[in-house]
């Protein structure tokens, strides 16, 4: 169960990444909080009792509670109370735009519902407040996704030239795409994601455009627009440099091109793209959450065992956190099995 909730938090972490970067100062406070001792956390809790309006102290505490909430009911309750206080009293606090300021409907139960009600009350009082629309959409993302869409669409109408609304809507539709059970539904949500991501791309600066390319390529591919997917993939490869995102571009561009090759029946080309994807230098995201295995799985189903094993070996160069998992998968493949987690 703990792993399930950690996975949910990771999804929120990825989706909120750009907002986290915009709220860098408060995020650093939360990260500092994660490193506090129990005694230090108790001192900060006392500080808040003496001065409830100390939002920075609450941010540090939410960082401290973030990982511990999964195993300690008292910590989880304290986290819930702090988030509820912020929604009710300081809804524009930047920490509420980050994963540290969210609650989960399953893990937090009634407190999540209370938070939802508190957000609706704030939105009723200030229906056109862009910061509140953004923070509430992030809160509703995983368990009230249609409400999150409504809030983002409203923000987009009010602030049409801001690429963040289209980017967030694109990411939200991308989550829908990944969760769709039927091919038709997946294709439809991918088309919506592509539409919003292209709006975000058009409105963004060069650096922000660069970060959108992998999602654009993936959405185009699932939507069935092979030419656009190929265009975005090649654009990624043409822009590879020494920045933090270059490892992502190498990886996802080659995964995209490999899927296109495989769909065209060119297994040899798909194999080559898979190896190129594995030769990425890595990135903060790939190093933490691991590589894309969708092309590897498809090739394994085509009995391309040797190339998939080579790919897993290459992934171990940057996905150090996943070395045990990679070893397990390699063993299963050598035993002529398709690892269940790759299915």
From TrEMBL:
Record-linked Gene3D superfamilies: Tetratricopeptide repeat domain
Keywords from the UniProt entry: Signal
SUPFAM superfamilies to which the protein is assigned, alphabetical: HCP-like (SSF81901)
Highest taxon, organism lineage: Bacteria
Signal peptide stretch: 1-23
Protein name: Tetratricopeptide repeat protein
Protein species of origin: Gimesia maris
Organism classification: Bacteria, Pseudomonadati, Planctomycetota, Planctomycetia, Planctomycetales
């Amino acid at each position: 169960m703990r792993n399930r909730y950690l996975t949910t938090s990771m999804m929120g972490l990825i989706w909120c990444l750009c907002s986290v970067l915009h709220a860098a100062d408060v995020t650093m406070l939360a990260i500092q909080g994660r490193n506090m001792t129990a005694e230090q956390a108790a001192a900060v809790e006392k500080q808040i009792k003496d001065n409830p309006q100390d939002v920075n102290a609450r941010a540090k505490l939410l960082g401290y509670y973030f990982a511990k909430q999964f195993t300690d009911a008292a910590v989880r309750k304290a986290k819930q109370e702090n988030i509820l206080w912020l929604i009710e009293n300081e809804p524009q606090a930047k920490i509420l735009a980050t994963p540290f300021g969210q609650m989960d409907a399953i893990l937090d139960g009634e407190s999540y519902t209370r938070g939802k009600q508190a957000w609706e009350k704030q939105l009723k009082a200030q229906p056109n407040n862009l910061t509140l629309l953004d923070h509430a959409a992030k809160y509703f993302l995983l368990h009230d996704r249609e409400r999150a869409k409504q809030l983002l669409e409203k923000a987009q109408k009010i602030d049409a030239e801001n690429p963040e609304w289209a980017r967030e809507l694109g990411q939200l539709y991308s989550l829908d795409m990944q969760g769709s059970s039927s091919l038709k539904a997946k294709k439809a949500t991918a088309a919506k994601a592509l539409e919003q991501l292209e709006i975000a791309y058009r409105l963004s600066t060069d650096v922000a455009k660069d970060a959108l390319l992998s999602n654009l390529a993936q959405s185009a591919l699932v939507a069935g627009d092979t030419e656009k997917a190929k265009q975005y993939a090649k654009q990624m490869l043409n822009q590879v440099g020494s920045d933090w995102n270059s490892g992502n571009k190498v990886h996802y561009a080659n995964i995209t091109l490999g899927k296109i090759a495989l769909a065209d029946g060119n297994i040899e080309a798909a194999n080559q793209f898979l190896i190129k994807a594995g030769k990425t230098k890595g990135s903060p995201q790939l190093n933490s959450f691991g590589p894309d295995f969708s092309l590897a799985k498809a090739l394994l189903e085509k009995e391309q065992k040797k190339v998939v094993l080579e790919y897993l070996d290459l992934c171990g160069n940057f996905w150090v956190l996943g070395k045990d998992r990679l070893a397990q998968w390699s063993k299963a493949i050598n035993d002529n099995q398709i690892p269940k987690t790759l299915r």
